[in-house]
Design brief:
single chain, 316 residues, alpha/beta, three-stranded mixed beta sheet, globular
């Protein structure tokens, strides 16, 4: 496929910026849509637009583009924030894209949508794994990403949903799947089970690759690193950067046992069993289908990627 005109939402965010850079490198014309923050560096092939997806008229933004990479979404906040910045924003963008006849809509989704609480330990999570049903005991982000998928599936555009793992890379090496941190101390919850990592370079390659390949039968797709470490391997590589200074091991099953005995009331996420098990239960993960469907490039080993991430400014 030749050069495309691609609209990238959330272009001021970490994933969005990486997608803009990747698409331009691949020779595509990019419309980078941002709501706030600094604009990308001007260059040939790049047009920057400012708009609030949940409020502004999007007609001009979507007119004449071949594909949309929808990276914009709230990462933190309560249900009201998520409803506005993730669900409503997506509804309005999907409607505008359908009216404009956009050929392909690519969603930067999340592996957070899977329901893992009822799975046996060491289960390999694939695209066929069931979605979360215990919504009240998951966070607002998970509820919003599930709703967002349904909006995209029900839209008029052909769509590809990429369920992306925990994004990491230079400046982003903390991972909530290893435990709870406070200053130099880490409460490590378990050592087994793979962490569903997705390096920022792989995420950008997958999103742009989905636009380049166009709609296909491979949908949805998990976007994960080829070399996924378990928790102990991740921590060992992370400590090479000087953090954490102190590691206190504790079994996640202790928290699980406590959570099972607590009354149904408002409590922290890791004392809700669905959230705890989704984050800490020892599972395996695979993104092999995306490697084939999107022709993803080979990756270096995990330790090499972590060393590069730690050597970057702000790596820890």
């Amino acid at each position: 496929m030749g050069a495309l005109s691609i609209l990238i939402t959330g272009a001021a965010g970490h994933v969005g910026r990486a997608c803009v850079a990747r698409a331009l490198t691949d020779g595509h014309r990019v419309r980078a849509l941002i709501r706030g923050g600094p604009e990308p560096t001007p260059c040939t092939g790049l047009t920057v637009l400012r708009a609030d997806l949940a409020r502004d008229d999007l007609t001009a933004a979507v007119q004449g583009v071949d594909a949309i990479l929808h990276c914009a979404a709230a990462m933190t906040g309560d249900d009201a924030v998520m409803a506005r910045d993730t669900v409503t924003a997506t509804e309005r963008l999907v409607t505008a894209a359908g009216a404009a006849g956009v050929a392909h809509f690519v969603l930067a989704g999340s592996v957070a949508v899977y329901g893992l609480a009822s799975l046996a330990e060491s289960t390999i999570v694939t695209e066929d794994t069931g979605l979360e049903r215990d919504l009240k005991n998951r966070d607002a982000y998970t509820r919003a990403k599930l709703a967002q998928e349904q909006v995209v599936i029900g839209g008029a555009c052909s769509a590809t949903i990429l369920r992306i793992g925990a994004v990491w890379g230079p400046g982003m090496v903390w991972n909530a799947h290893i435990g709870v941190a406070k200053g130099p101390v880490l409460l490590r919850m378990g050592r087994d089970g793979q962490i569903p990592l997705a390096h920022i370079d792989r995420v950008a390659a997958a999103l742009v690759g989905a636009a380049e390949h166009g709609p296909s039968g491979a949908n949805p797709l998990n976007i994960l690193d080829a070399d996924l470490p378990d928790r102990l391997r991740y921590l060992n590589a992370l400590q090479a950067g000087g953090w954490p200074k102190l590691v206190l091991p504790v079994s996640w099953r202790l928290f699980d046992a406590i959570a099972a005995r607590l009354p149904d009331m408002r409590r922290p996420g890791l004392l809700r069993r669905a959230t705890l098990r989704a984050r800490m239960a020892p599972m395996g993960w695979t993104g092999a289908a995306a490697e084939t469907a999107l022709d993803l490039p080979p990756q270096p080993a995990f330790e090499h990627l972590m060393a590069d991430a730690l050597s970057a400014k702000g790596g820890t």
